[in-house]
Write a structure and sequence with these properties.
The protein is α/β, with parallel strands linked by helices. It has helices at about 5-20, 35-45, 65-70, 75-85, 95-100, 120, 125-140, 155-165, 205-215, 220-235, and strands at about 1-5, 25-30, 50-55, 90, 145-150, 170-175, 235-245, 260-270, 270-280. Strand 5, helix 8 (about 155-165) and strand 6 form a beta-alpha-beta unit. The protein is globular and about 55 Å long. The chain binds adenosine monophosphate. Adenosine monophosphate binds near residues 29, 149 and 175.
Length: about 290
């Protein structure tokens, strides 16, 4: 695996791969790699023949400085995992390399509701940071395919919208959520869950799964109310638990007015904020 810390080196290597007619897939991450990240890399290897992974803990998407400071950075383990899985390139830029002082850019897209609801309410500025870094990383890497995780459902919806609005020549693939055996969605932040609270952490998955079996026999409002109340009973502090339209992220009030339905949830377990989601009714989307 080739490791590049600078844009110029990465771009030369990707250009060579392209000259050799390789299809290039890009998997952006913030490191602390787990099976969820590795599933994205496996997907990338399935749909392309040259896989670029980035590890960049993007400061502009952290609305909470403590979260940024506490973010795990086990770099040598990450590199070993990437070597073992057979990634072709690791891009490991500094903050200066991604945001050089002379480079000032805005991503001129109207995201409407997409950035304002759910995470947008509780993590002000977060998506502005995500949009900027993904735009910049795409500009640097110029991949044919971008692979992201459905775990961050809203993030995928926003990046899909950006790609469509700017006519970026990249295909977006969203890969399903990878979970622990007990149902907890894998996340780099899970290492911070207090061991005494860990057995309860999978309640989110069980409550979402239950909602998936009963939703059509009740109303969206009731699904939201019951889910949030069960989570609170399980010891979580709920920020949102809401059935939304999978395309627009607007609140679902009546089932028959939406074809793509997903429950999105964010809740605190002790000092750790967990997010998860469950698709109730799916549609095929292509960018
Ligand atoms: P992060 O390192 O948290 O920025 O995540 C990098 C990518 O991995 C994002 O596209 C995430 O959605 C994805 N990802 C994180 N956790 C999971 C998971 N449990 N299953 C699938 N994809 C995931």
């Amino acid at each position: 695996m080739h490791v590049f810390t600078q844009v110029s080196g990465l771009q030369k290597r990707v250009a060579t791969a392209r000259e050799r007619n390789k299809r290039i897939a890009f998997v952006p991450t913030m490191g602390a790699l787990h099976e969820g990240h590795l599933s994205l890399i496996e997907k990338a290897q399935e749909v392309a023949d040259y896989v670029v992974v980035s590890i960049f803990v993007n400061p502009t998407q952290f609305n909470d400085p403590k979260d940024l400071e506490m973010y795990p950075r086990p770099l040598s383990f990450d590199i070993a995992k990437l070597e073992a899985i057979g990634a072709n390139v690791l891009f490991l830029p500094s903050v200066q390399e991604i945001y050089p002082a002379e480079l000032d850019f805005v991503v001129d897209v109207d995201f409407g509701l997409l950035t304002k609801v759910l995470e947008g309410v509780y993590r002000p500025g977060h998506f502005e940071g995500v949009i900027k870094v993904v735009y910049r990383l795409l500009e640097i890497t110029q991949p044919d395919v971008l692979i992201m995780g459905q775990k961050d459902f809203q993030q995928v919806a926003i990046i899909r919208h950006m790609i469509q609005e700017l006519h970026l020549p990249v295909e977006l693939i969203a890969n399903p959520i990878v979970r622990e055996a007990d149902g907890l969605a894998l996340s780099s932040r899970n290492v911070r869950i207090d061991p005494s609270q860990r057995p309860r952490a999978n309640s989110i998955f069980y409550i979402l799964s239950e909602a998936k079996t009963i939703w059509h026999s009740t109303t969206p409002t009731e699904v939201n109310r019951v889910g949030a109340s069960k989570l609170e009973q399980a010891g979580f502090r709920v920020e949102y638990y809401e059935v939304v339209d999978g395309h627009t992220l607007e609140t679902v009030e009546q089932w028959d007015q939406h074809e793509y339905l997903v429950i999105c949830v964010a809740a605190w377990l002790g000092q750790v904020r967990l997010i998860d989601n469950m698709i109730l009714q799916d549609v095929k989307i292509t960018v």
